[in-house]
Amino acid sequence: MIFQGILVAISAVAATLYLVLYRKAPPSRRRALVKATAAGSLMVATIIEGAPITLVFYFASAALCDAILAREDGDDFFVALAVALMAQIFLCLTFLTAWTGIDAPFVAAIGLGGIWVGYFMLIWGGLVRSRVAIICYSVGMLASTYVALGTDTYGQFAVIGMLFYVLSQVLISLEIYMLRRNEIEAVLAGHSVWISYYTSLLMFFVAFCG
């Protein structure tokens, strides 16, 4: 238990260092390592805790995706998106291990579908070559969100975590496709993306390891 606590602390320190020192720093190996450590430490803690193996793979995929994105190499964008989609598949499978069902499945599906359509109406003009890839990834995220609504985990942290994750993806879409890079809104959105994303990682960990 103490070792798991140390790993979570390392994860939190890495996340804070990335937010404060490295988020706006030039791409480097150290930057990629710090960013990946936030999810990577949770992966190791998950293994020790004996959580579902799919959750281990989720954190591993998240760490890999974070390391790729930290490089800020345009050629790696689709690779990162593929890894992110793989992470969503593992997350969805993890949620299925705690699936109990949704009281109003059709209402939930229609509601999420409406939000999904509205989201794409908002960013569609900014998408050019990446439309198909973004749609595929967002479908995976939509599936994870739907399954999360029917899970029964410790303190309902899976649902809370998924809401934070969706928030991070909406914010990053606004940052990339709608806001100018140096605008104060873009700067605030960038910080909010990382905070909401990392909060989702912690919520997923607590949901299955708490």
From TrEMBL:
Superkingdom to which the source organism belongs: Bacteria
Coiled coil: none
Bilayer-crossing regions: 38-65, 77-100, 106-125, 132-149, 155-174, 186-208
Keyword terms, alphabetized: Membrane, Transmembrane, Transmembrane helix
Protein name: YhhN-like protein
